[in-house]
Write a structure and sequence with these properties.
With about 450 residues, the protein is of the alpha/beta class. It is built from 16 helices and 23 strands. The N and C termini lie far apart (about 45 Å).
Length: about 450
Amino acid sequence: MSFPDSLRKSLSENPQRLALSFLGVEITFGELENYSNQFANMLIDQGFNKGDVVGINLPNIPEYVIALIGTHKAGCIVSGVSPLLSAVQIQYQLNDLGAKGKKVALVTLDAVFEAHINKIAPKLPSLALVVTTSVGGFLPKIKQVLGKLIGKIPKGKITPIEGKTVLDFHKDILGKFSTELPNVDITPDDLAYIQYTGGTTGPPKGAMLTHRNAVSDLLIVQSWLDWERGDYFALSGFPFFHIAGLFFCENCLYLGWGQCLIPNPRDTDHICKELEKYKPLALVNVPSLFQILLKNPNFAELDHSSLEVCISAASPFPKESQVELEKIVGEGKLLEVYGMTECSPLTVMNPSKGEKKLGHIGLPILNVDLKLVDPETDKIVALGEAGEILVKGPMVMQGYYNKPEETKKAIDDEEFMHTGDVAIMDEEGYLRIVDRTKDMIIVSGFKVFSSKVEDALSK
């Protein structure tokens, strides 16, 4: 099924259920349904057709989730655009997206509009529409004014751009367009996302993910974790423009769970207050954020009994810190997982029930074929030896957008994705990452894994 089809139950079955919590503002699934329909109908009114692209250039605020669902309802493709990118990087991504004659829209912050978009607009021929908002767009007016006055909410001036439509998210879309679900035929094999991934060499590449890729990984991971629909809550500091944050958000929407939106993950006092208020079932973060939380004494004082799982992804997590975290949240609650943008993203996880091995990314999950090979010969390595992870399954991307040569290098004739990550598998099938193929250091002819050096330094 398509991603919007997979959300029908959540959006319509219990409209009063809480979907989003954002700085004291709460939005229900019924409101999310109406807002996203209005966004979709606005895109159609602006001449956007199935297969056109919407770049979402926002932190984790309600407008991101509304634009995400609304874009898919209109049959368009979502592309996360990090607000941390420079003007040159934004220009590259938007022009790459529009290279095949696709119409491009950008949803951005007023501060980014003034700092970057206004200046690069003449160099963006495919950009037809810009929708602007503020970090405090959903906050009460008094909080918006005060937030901007004391500098807590960034601000920027919105001005017309020649040859492009500029709309305000709240004044021009919400309340103005129909709340009826648009009638657009979306199939599982239509593109849902073009998510850019930096890699270690060359310009960023857009991984093309279909609705089938996205929904299959949702179902696989939920089955693996034994997650069910229900009145649950979850919290993550992962940004939605990153595949890990996007996947977390998709899971909550699909399962009908509420989620706390964290616009600034470095504000751990705010995260602790949200943890205390909503008592989430799942906490999903990058290792560095878990480490920042460990430094906040308020985190250790919280009651973590309702927390079932802490999921860590996207980078290595020093084992010493993992032990420290489990002392606070409870033994056996930390779950290291592994994935990449090109795989929608997850392919390897520790078991939710059964042995979790700290310092290991876990076992290949359902519907994943996995092998470890010598990166130079492509021959399968012996158990206990380091080899590049190759994966195959319904979650693997269609290829890199506009980059057929890069696609050939990444996905071989047997449809295995070459991840570039080097791992060792033990006798029980658990995998441990030791390096990236491009990061291996040769010292006196010997291969040295950079993770060994990092491990020594972290100790």
